Amino acid sequence: MKGLRFARHGGPEVLGWDEVPVPEPGTGELLIEVRAFAVNWADLLERAGRYPGAPEPPYVMGHDLTGVVVARGPGAEGPPIGTRVFGVISKGGAAAEFVTAPVTQVYPAPATLSDAQAAGAAGPYLTADAAILTMGRLRKGEDVLIHAAAGAYGSACLQLCRAYGAGRIIATAGSDAKAERIRQWGADVAVNYTTRDFAEVVREVTGGRGVPLLLESVGGEVLDRSLDCLSPGGRLVSVGASSGRGSQRLRLHTLFELGVSVSGFTLGTWLAHNPELVRPSVERVLQQFENGGAAPVVARVFPAAEVAAAHEFLAARRSVGRTVVTVAEAL
C-alpha cells in the first residue's frame, strides 16, 4: 500500500507516497481502509522537526481520518466490518491506504457528514468539547474568548460554545474576511487581530472585567496577551501552539498575581492513556452533529497527489475550517 512519509525534516517538498506494508490489526484493533484524512498544524510541525516527542523519520503521518472497517484484530469489538468510521489515531499512520486503530479511537461516522467533513471532525470537535466543558467548566451565560476561530479547532469551539449556552462570544481571526465568516457562524464580537488589539477589545466589551473562559491554541505572544483578558477566577485552556512558540510570561507567580487558572491537554494523550476521559465528549459531539447544533467546516479538499499543496495551504493560514486530503483518487 501507499503511505505518506518523509525521510528528513523540511518543507512540503520532503513529503512522498512510499510503498509500505499493510499493517496487521493487533489485539483490540481494527484495520481501516482510509477514504480521507485531515492535515493538522501538528503535521506541519512534525514534518519541520518542531513537534515535541515525534518519532524520527521516516514514518507514516496523519492522525484524523474517515474510512471503512475491513478487518478486526483479536478481541476487537466496536464497529462491525463495513462500518464507515471517523476518529483520531494517537499513534499516527492515517495518511495511508490502510491503517490500524484501537477500537477506542474510532466511532461510527454520522450519516449527516460527508467523508471530507468526517475526516476533519473528530480532532477539533472532541478537543473543543473537552476544552469547553471538561477542562473549561463553561457555565451557561458565561462570556468566552476564542482565538483563531476561523480554523478547524476555533470554528468547532465557536459552534459548541453557542450550542452549550455561552454568553457573549468574542472571537479572533487573521483577516477581515475571516472575521466576517466567524461573525456569520455566531460570534457576537469578531476581532481581526492583525489590525486591532484583542485584549483592548475584550476590556471594552466586558467593561474592564475580562472573560471567565478563554480557549487558546496559538501560543507565543497571543498566549501572553491572553492572560490580560481573564476575569478574576478565570480559566484559560490551551490545546496547542500553532505559532510554534511558547510563553515568555507564564510563570507560577503569574497565576498568583492574576488569580486565574491555566490548564492544557492533548487529545492524543487522553486517547492513548485515558480514553474514558474522551467518551463524554464523543457522546455530546455526536448528538450535536445529529441535531444540527454543529457542522464541520471544510475549507478545501485536495487529492492525494497534491498533499504538499495541502500543507502549504494550511501553513499560509488560508484555511477557513478544515484542510482535507482524499486517498483513493490518486493512489
Characteristics:
331 residues, 11 helices, seven-stranded mixed sheet, alpha/beta, Rossmann fold, Quinone Oxidoreductase, Chain A, domain 1, globular
Question: What can you tell me about this protein's structure?
Answer:
The chain has 331 residues and is of the alpha/beta class. It has 2 domains: 2-121 and 296-326, Medium-chain alcohol dehydrogenases, catalytic domain (Quinone Oxidoreductase, Chain A, domain 1, Alpha-Beta Complex); 124-265, Rossmann fold. It has 11 helices and 15 strands. The chain has helices spanning 41-48, 115-119, 122-135, 152-163, 176-184, 198-205, 220-226, 252-258, 267-273, 279-291, 307-315; strands at 2-6, 15-19, 29-39, 64-72, 84-88, 98-102, 106-108, 144-146, 169-173, 189-192, 211-216, 230-238, 261-264, 298-303, 322-326. The strands form 3 sheets. Strands 3, 4, 5, 6, 7, 14 and 15 form a 7-stranded mixed β-sheet that branches. Strand 11 (211-216), helix 7 and strand 12 (230-238) form a beta-alpha-beta unit. Helix 3 crosses helix 4 (152-163) and helix 3 packs across helix 10 (279-291). The longest helix has 14 residues, at 122-135. It is globular.
